[in-house]
Each structure stands twice: as structure tokens, then as C-alpha cells.
Write a structure and sequence with these properties.
single chain; 173 residues; alpha+beta; Peptide Deformylase; three-stranded antiparallel beta sheet; 3 helices; globular; binds zinc ion
Amino acid sequence: MTLRKIVTLPDPVLKRKARPISKFDKDLQTLIDDMIETMREAPGVGLAAPQIGLSERLIVVEYYEREEDEEKEDAPKKVWAVINPEIVKASEETTMGVEGCLSIPGLVGEVERHAEVQVRGLNRHGKPMKVKAKGWLARIFQHEVDHLNGILFPDRATRVWQPKQEVEEQQEF
Ligand code: ZN
């Protein structure tokens, strides 16, 4: 596996709408594994292909599957790789949260997101998959799908600021 370089603003790839993936070949498998490794090394809880300079519809996420596990440090995390992800359902209920982005170092913002979402897409072998996400996991998926449409958290934030302390790992994606 190879660590990929995370691109940051003002790289124009971050503002572009990424193209769908149609080939589920060996190169895609390598790319997914590289993205997972790059996300862990960063460290972050999610990464979208445009963040490594590739304008393709692919995201990886690593977080607690169940919302009630967020508080438990030893609870296992799950890894998702979703190709051509789409948010097909979103709760009316929203929540505010403070997000950072690996592609926008030194900045955080308060962003309103749907409290629950359903994401549909394809797994790494091209098979349909669905994820039901609540809480912070739902936030991560919304942030990553935004990346595929050239949308960054400051575009949605009610306010942005430069934090005095380093932001926590779970806030960066
Ligand atoms: Zn991001």
C-alpha cells in the first residue's frame, strides 16, 4: 500500500464535480486500500478521492457503526468504501456540529447536517450496498459526499474560525 498525498485548498480538484466510477479492476482495489491507509495516517475518519487529487466518486469512512458506541473508546470501528455514493434518504431532524477537513488545514466550522441519512452506492466489487447512518457517522457521510460534488464545509457552515488547539481526529474528514 502507498500513502497518497492529501491535496489542500486552493487546489481546483476540490471544487470540481467528480465523475462516476465504472471499472472495478485491480487498480481500483489498490486505490481503495491506499485511501484507507492515507485516512488512517492523516489521521481522519473519512476521505474522498478528490482529496488525493482524483476527480472520481469514491469515499472511504472509518468510524463507529452504532451511535451509542461513540462514547466508548474501545468499541470497534467499521470501514466503508463506497463507490458512486448517493444520499437517498435524509431525516428532517438536523444537528449542529464542528467540522474540520483534511484539505483545509487550520480551519473549522459549525455545520448543520441531517441527523440520519441513508447512503446507497456500490462496494469495491461493484455490488450494490446501503448504509444507514446516525449522528456523527451520518455527518461524515454527508461531508464526504459533498466532496464529490465540489462542496466544502465552509460552503455550508454558519460560521468558520481558526481553532487555537489542534482539532480532534474525529473532526477531520
Ligand atoms: Zn473534507
